[in-house]
Amino acid sequence: MKKDIHPDNYRLVVFQDLNDKSTFLTRSTVKTDETITLDGTEYPLVQVHISSSSHPFYTGQEKLMDVEGRVDKFKARRDAARAHADKKKSAKQKPADKKAKKPAQETQKMGTLKQTKK
Questions:
Q1: 30 alpha-carbon distance from chain centroid
Q2: Distance of alpha carbon 63 from alpha carbon 50, whole angstroms
Q3: Residue 15, H or E segment
Q4: Secondary structure of residue 78 in the 3-state scheme
C-alpha cells in the first residue's frame, strides 16, 4: 500500500438530520465550524437534510408526489389508447368474419378435385 495517501485527521463528528433531529456519532474528516454537546462531550456538528432515519426508502413511508399531475395525464393517455385499440380491434373483427367464409368455400371446392397417384 502507498503511504501517506489517507487523511490522518479522523475525529468523532456528529451528523444531525434536519427533518427529525436524529443524530449519528461517527468518525469523519469533514470540516465544520458548528459544534454540539452530546452526552457531556462537545463534538463538531454537520447538519444534513436527509439521512437513513428520514429517507422514505428506509422508513417505508414512500409517497408518490404528483405536483404537476403527470400520473393522471399518463393514466388518461393509457385509457384513451386502450379505448382506441379496442375500437380498432372490434372494427377489424367484422371484415374478418366475411373473409373467414371465403376460405371455407374454397376448401370445399378443392375437396372435389381428384387426387392422382404417383
A1: 33
A2: 15
A3: strand 11-17
A4: helix
Residues 6-50: tens digit of each pLDDT: 888 899 999 998 888 889 999 999 999 999 998 899 999 999 888
pLDDT digits (tens, 9 = 90+) for 44-56: 999 988 887 877 6
Q: Where are the domains of the chain?
A: 1-65
Strand-strand pairing, 23-28 and 35-38: unpaired
- What are the DSSP calls for 83-112, one per residue? HHHHHHHHHHHHHHHHHHHHHHHHHHHHHT
CB 48 within 8 A of CB 28: no
pTM above 0.90, yes or no: no
